[in-house]
Amino acid sequence: MTGTDREKRQRDLIARLCEIWSRILCVPAVDADSNFFDLGGDSLLAVALFLEIERETGTDLPITTIYDAPTICELANLIMDESAPAFSPLVSLKPGDGSAPLFIVHGIGGTVMELGALGRAISIPAPVYALQAQGLDGLQPPLESIDDMAALYLDHVRELQAEGPYWLSGYSFGGLVALEMARRLLDENQEPAIPILIDAFAHPWTWPRASRLKMRARRTLYLTRQLLGASPHKSAPALLARLRNGLQRKDASAQLRDWLLDQNPDLPAPLLRVREAGGMALARYVPRYYPGKIIFLKASHPDPEFPDDPARIWGPLAQDMDLRIVPGRHRTMVSDHAGALAECLTARILGNDTIGERSAVSSRRAPRTNKQRLQPQAG
């Protein structure tokens, strides 16, 4: 292919990609330097985008490609060169100086799409990285253990940063992984900074009975609505089986795993496998006492089916806890309130106690009664 032919093919490809992005993202005008995340892209839109790109161009790229090529021009270059970048758990959200980076661990779905706006809004000069789940590229098996996730992510973190202190954070499910990473560093006589848990997912064994009943009721209602609109020959038998399964008496971990698998069932197979593996990891994990301080950033409007008492749930898991309230709900605090959350994260890293509403219990030392592995509640 001559240089002129390549330039023409690339121009045509960029034009087609602009049309696809405009259609998928519902944006009237898109140029070659448009950034997917700046245009409001998330994991579901990325799925739709790459399915449409495959249909229009015949190029099958893993969804993780969007992290390495978030603009149309960059994506066009990858398609032209027929080379997707090698998968890595580390995703750069914001470049920075030589300071110790901030690492943010993914939520239960494994992707870090929702963390893009947050990373760019954090004002510290240090770089910000997200940690995404193994298996999103469809080439490697997803991890089904929080211990394995913590070990893998620490290996990559230490390749990037040889010595501490390590700034570790995690959103929702990622809070459990970040806390396990910090605990491992302490066991190895390494130096973690204070772990920052962003509305971290409470382990189901700590849930009160009312929260577990709410989750079961919500899942039953969801499956019933799906069943009413299902195809009688294809979808209905599977939905009936899931509904019968959901009505059985189970412990909180099994209920949560079933509920997670109901979310976005039409996702591509790699994303579904990662989500299922995350549910398995959560069900198998037993929280362990952390002999240090944690910072907990709690959503001001938590979801109704999840427990709403971080002091009771997380207090026994750490020596001390600084609890701060930030705007938004659990599912929207990162995407819709990235600026406020970034300001609070920045303040915690810089040691500024004037940012973020302090909870009445934040200065209270947590009880030190659970230094060993916690025991599950009865289902």
Keywords, please?
single chain; 379 residues; 8-stranded mixed sheet; 8 strands; globular; disordered C terminus
Residue stretches low in confidence (pLDDT < 50, at least 5 long) are 360-379
Distance between the termini: 65 Å
Helix content: 40-55%
Give the averaged pLDDT, no decimals.
Answer: 79
Helical stretch count?
14
- Oligomer state equals single chain
Counting DSSP E segments of at least 2 residues, the number of strands comes to 8
Q: What pattern of helices and strands is seen along the backbone?
A: HHHHEEHEHEHEHHHHEHEHHE
How can the largest sheet be summarized?
A: 8 strands, mixed
Overall shape: globular
Cα gyration radius (Å): 22 Å
With strands numbered from the N-terminus, the spatial order across the biggest sheet is 1-3-2-4-5-6-7-8
Question: Layout of helices and strands, plus pairs?
Answer:
Layout: H1 3-25, H2 43-57, H3 65-68, H4 72-81, E1 90-94, E2 102-105, H5 116-121, E3 128-131, H6 146-160, E4 167-171, H7 173-187, E5 196-198, H8 209-228, H9 235-247, H10 252-262, H11 269-284, E6 290-301, H12 310-314, E7 318-329, H13 333-336, H14 338-350, E8 357-358
Parallel strand pairs: 2-3, 2-4, 4-5, 5-6, 6-7
Antiparallel strand pairs: 1-3, 7-8
Helix pairs in contact: 1-2, 1-4, 6-7, 8-9, 8-10, 10-11
Write up what this structure looks like:
The structure is a single chain. By secondary structure, the chain is of the alpha/beta class. 45% of the residues lie in helices and 12% in strands. The protein has helices at 3-25, 43-57, 65-68, 72-81, 116-121, 146-160, 173-187, 209-228, 235-247, 252-262, 269-284, 310-314, 333-336, 338-350, and strands at 90-94, 102-105, 128-131, 167-171, 196-198, 290-301, 318-329, 357-358. It has an eight-stranded mixed sheet with strand order 1-3-2-4-5-6-7-8, sandwiched between helices. Helix 12 links the parallel strand 6 and strand 7. Helix 10 (252-262) packs antiparallel against helix 11. The longest helix has 23 residues, at 3-25. The radius of gyration is 22 Å and the shape is globular. Mean pLDDT is 79; it is low at 360-379.
